[in-house]
Inverse folding.
């Protein structure tokens, strides 16, 4: 039987590939995509950082409002004695130089978790120090040791207070006829990082 001859045809030894120009174009497109991806990622990170900072500021402001609302609503018409034994008005407000108390008063409703021999009253003070609003509390209502300042918010300026007296008038300076007098409400305004804030708190409503 005669063998069959198969024609395999001509095989080419040449291989297809990219030219130098094509490689440069591909690398250029890849670099553009990489730069765009990095910019998009950086923008997302920056947006998250800004959002987190704003949420943190909002949380701090909410804690401040809740704390002041709790303190002022439980304010008591009780005068107290200072470290020198002098009788001091139940409600004091002074602003100005660093370290002065913005507000100082006695509140009720203090918890006594460790069963110390003390009343449920507590004297508290809000102070402004170099743009930092701090809260202090005293061990006893008359004299006594004072706690370390607790930082509430910082970066504030232009603090202004108004008080609603018993005649329903708003006044900028709190002056009492009796040492036990309390304002009906307190309005506080201040700036923080370019934003204006205004809050109004009722005073002593928790004990009316």
């Amino acid at each position: 039987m005669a063998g069959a001859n198969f024609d395999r045809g001509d095989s080419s030894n040449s291989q297809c590939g990219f030219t130098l120009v094509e490689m440069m174009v591909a690398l250029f497109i890849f670099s553009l995509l990489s730069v765009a991806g990095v910019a998009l990622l950086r923008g997302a990170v920056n947006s998250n950082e800004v959002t987190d900072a704003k949420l943190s500021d909002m949380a701090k402001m909410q804690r401040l409002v809740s704390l002041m609302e709790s303190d002022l609503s439980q304010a008591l018409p009780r005068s107290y004695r200072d470290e020198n034994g002098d009788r001091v008005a139940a409600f004091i407000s002074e602003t100005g130089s660093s370290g002065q108390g913005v507000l100082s008063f006695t509140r009720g409703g203090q918890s006594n978790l460790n069963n110390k021999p003390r009343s449920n009253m507590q004297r508290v003070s809000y102070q402004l120090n170099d743009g930092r609003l701090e809260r202090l509390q005293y061990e006893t209502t008359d004299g006594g040791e004072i706690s370390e300042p607790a930082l509430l918010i910082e970066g504030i300026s232009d603090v202004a207070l108004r008080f609603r007296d018993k005649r329903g008038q708003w006044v900028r300076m709190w002056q009492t006829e009796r040492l036990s007098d309390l304002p009906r409400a307190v309005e506080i305004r201040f700036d923080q990082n370019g934003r204006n804030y205004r809050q109004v708190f009722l005073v002593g409503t928790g004990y009316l």
In short: The helical segments are 20-73. Residues 71-207 form a domain with the Pili subunits fold (CATH 3.10.610.10).
